[in-house]
Amino acid sequence: MFSDFDWDVILRSLPYLFFDGMRFTLMLTALATAGGIVIGTLLALMRLSSFAPFSIVAGGYVNLMRSMPLVLVIFWIYFLVPYIGQWVTGASRPIQVGALVTCLVTFTIFEAAYFCEIMRAGIQSIPRGQTEAAKAIGMTYWQTMGDVILPQAFRNMIPVLLTQTIVLFQDTSLVYVISVTDFLGAASKIAQRDGRLVEMYLFAAVVYFIVSLGASIMVRRLQRRVAIVR
Amino acid sequence: MIEIDNVSKWYLDFQVLKGCSTNVAKGEVVIVCGPSGSGKSTLIKCVNGLEPFQKGNITVDGISVGDVKTNLPKLRARVGMVFQHFELFPHMSVLQNLTIGQIKVLGRDEEESRVRAFKLLDRVGLHEFADKFPGNLSGGQQQRVAIARALAMDPIAMLFDEPTSALDPEMINEVLDVMVALAKDGMTMMVVTHEMGFARSVANRVIFMDRGEIVEDAKKDDFFGKPRSERAQLFLSKILHH
Ligand SMILES: Nc1ncnc2c1ncn2[C@@H]1O[C@H](COP(=O)(O)OP(=O)(O)OP(=O)(O)O)[C@@H](O)[C@H]1O
Ligand SMILES: [Mg+2]
To answer: Is B11 helix (H, G, I), strand (E, B) or coil?
Structure first.
């Protein structure tokens, strides 16, 4: 049956698939990971705060995001962001927001909930004595967190954070629902245009598989190296 | 230097400290001992505000620890503390452990804090370990670094919470030697320990705690001569026969 296949279509569309599609996918993955870790870490600090309003707000946010299908959040942001932009800037019409920005906002705030839980576990894994030792030499809360607790928590959690990033890498394909061209979107377009569905979707599957598997093998190697000697 | 006045503390409805009062004069070495769970750690952690307390008063160099207006980080920077489990920062080299507080808290420049750090590493005999990480040091070495880290802040007093009880027996003396030298230099010290040999050689006073109360607060010779309370006598006979 493979004799009917046109493998050449893949070769011909490689530049489009990678320079347009994959570039968007990787950029979205990297930026959303960075943003998600920063916001997630702040959320984790709020969740662990003894000041009840902080922990309630952060906890509520995390639970809300974690009980929503990602697609739904994408729709929300897609339809809401132009109006929020209008409200913030006081413009007379909804602000036109680019595809990358929409996707970035969505994935960042969605992933922040997951990164929050990872960082929270990381912070809680650091013995209480470390906080006491930092405070005992006169460090403030932010110095204690920034110089002592978070660097250790982050290092302990790197493997888990990267694993979450691999999941995010796969999830970014959902941007097709707002007609954004990521890697899968690009493959899809070629597939429809040339009527080569099987070839293109097979190829896309192979690429996702190789990237994800390769990344998780690297994570496992890293895991053995980053563990801090106590 | 340290005045503890009628301090009580509760964990929910469990009272950990029951009206504790004592004081430590400048240059004095005060030993705190007592059975496990008697509140020794809690009491010395109240002194630098690591643990809040609900009743009573503690002042350090005239500054009230319990006062909400007190800048606790600033006060803590002037009181050194050494922990049972060392609590060195494992992601920093020994040198960084000694300089971070000087740089971030005291605002010293890097060079000045390095000089100070090496002076203290010399003092605890660990000059050549400056670039090592805590995980590669023995327990005794880690605790000496921890003492040096506290001293790097030029504290006016030092608090020790069972500094030798997590150590292998052969490492206890190297840490005690550093502490004896510190005491002889006139450092104000409050030391939770069961090392009675150390207490005999440098202590001015010994406090005995039981179930959250200060049962005995006596001059060293009186305490080892004949403690007034039965509980202290019992405790002493137990640990001295080990
Ligand atoms: N966070 C906490 N919540 C509830 N109870 C606590 C807490 N911390 C300590 N306690 C209790 O307070 C009491 C005093 O504890 P503390 O650690 O001060 O005793 P200690 O004299 O230092 O004992 P040890 O010799 O075992 O170190 C103990 O009964 C302990 O169980
Ligand atoms: Mg204790």
So the answer is: strand
What are the E-state strand segments in A78-178? none
Distances (CA, A) of A151 to A41, A114, B89, B91: 11, 19, 10, 8
User: Is residue B3 within 8 Å of residue B39, measured between CB atoms?
Assistant: no
Cβ–Cβ < 8 Å for B152, B96: no
B100 contacts on A by Cβ (under 8 Å) = 137, 147
Q: Is the pLDDT of residue B183 over 80?
A: yes
Angstrom distance (rounded) from CA B95 to CA B4: 35
Residue ranges matching CATH 3.40.50.300 in chain B: 1-28+45-70, 75-198
Residues with CB under 6 A from ligand 1: B 11, 14, 16, 34, 36-42
Provide φ and ψ at B188, rounded to 5°. Answer: -80, 125
Please return the burial class of B184, using the count of CB atoms within 10 Å of its CB with bins 0-12, 13-18 and 19+: exposed
Rounded to two decimals, the ipTM of the complex is 0.91
Structure confidence at residue B241 (pLDDT): 64
- pLDDT, tens digit, for every residue of B4-52? 999 999 998 899 999 999 999 999 999 999 999 999 999 999 999 999 9
Q: Domain B1-28+45-70 classified CATH 2.40.30.170?
A: no
- Residue A122, min C-alpha distance to chain B (Å): 15
Assigned CATH for A7-229: 1.10.3720.10
Instruction: Give B-chain residues touching A132 at CB under 8 angstroms.
Output: 45, 50, 81, 83, 87
| Contact across the interface for A139 and B101, Cβ inside 8 Å | yes
Q: Under CATH, which architecture does the B75-198 domain have?
A: 3-Layer(aba) Sandwich (3.40)
